[in-house]
Amino acid sequence: MPRFTRIQKIIIAVIAVFMVFGFITRSMQNGNMISKFGYDAFTMLRYSLIENPVETVKNWGSDFSDLWEAKLENDELKHEMSKQKLYNVELQEQKRQNAELKKLLKMNHSITDYGKIGASVVRRDADMWNNLLTINAGSKDGVKQNMAVVSSKGVIGTVKDVFKHTSTVKLLTTESPGENMSVKVSVDDKTSVEGILEYYDAESERFIVTVLSNSKEIKKNMNVITSGLGGKYPGGLYIGKVTKVEEMDNKIGKKLYVKPGADFKNFEYVSVIDYSEDAS
Q1: Is 179 helix (H, G, I), strand (E, B) or coil?
Q2: Interatomic CA distance for residues 167 and 163, integer angstroms
Q3: Does any domain span residue 127?
Q4: What is the CA radius of gyration of the chain?
Q5: What 3-state DSSP class applies to 35?
Q6: What positions belong to coiled-coil segments (predicted)?
Q7: pLDDT in tens, 69-108
Q8: pTM recorded for the entire structure
Q9: What residues have CB less than 8 Å from 129, skipping those under 6 apart?
């Protein structure tokens, strides 16, 4: 005897269900107890196998939809919070830059006898961090070799190479200092002691200044500024503060450790000082 196919089985099952449903409905119309019992059984079966599962699936779908909407809303809130953090960082950076520019402007106002060329740091390689950097001002802006460069807190170096739109700056923290800088220690409003800034000690993060004087007046926290001698740096530019005074071995004079006024690790804006006679 041949077996029914799957489709045939489904059709037979559907026909059987409709026959049973019709029989129960007809019996209900006749009102006998057996029919009522059969109708109750059918109703329970229909609820258990059809209506309840369908309602469950419907409720599950509704819950899933609500959950998905909540997830999308949560993702959107997270995105907005991350943007808020970014805005806060940008705001803090803008405030820092504004503060630096204000200090640089104040520094420029204190340097009244010389021309000043504003610039921004555009390149500073890690392997030359303490030696060189590049600014976005060049020959077209009037920059020339050996001009002094200051940040908002003090002298940082001199112009080394000049191109049309950019220039490289040799920092005072360079490992190959080259020529020494003439400086003076301000003892008081009327008295100062001449000295030489010889090099930057990376280990102590201090400039090493020698003064050929045994003056006992030199003490910690005294200011060190450029003297104006030597022709490269104009006088009166801030270098830093004395943090330590040592007697020199077998020599007349003192060795000073000077904390730089400029923050060599963090600055973006500088001024190039035009020390030429026609710039004043």
Answers
A1: coil
A2: 6
A3: yes
A4: 43
A5: helix
A6: 74-104
A7: 877 777 777 777 766 666 566 656 566 666 666 666 666 6
A8: 0.62
A9: none
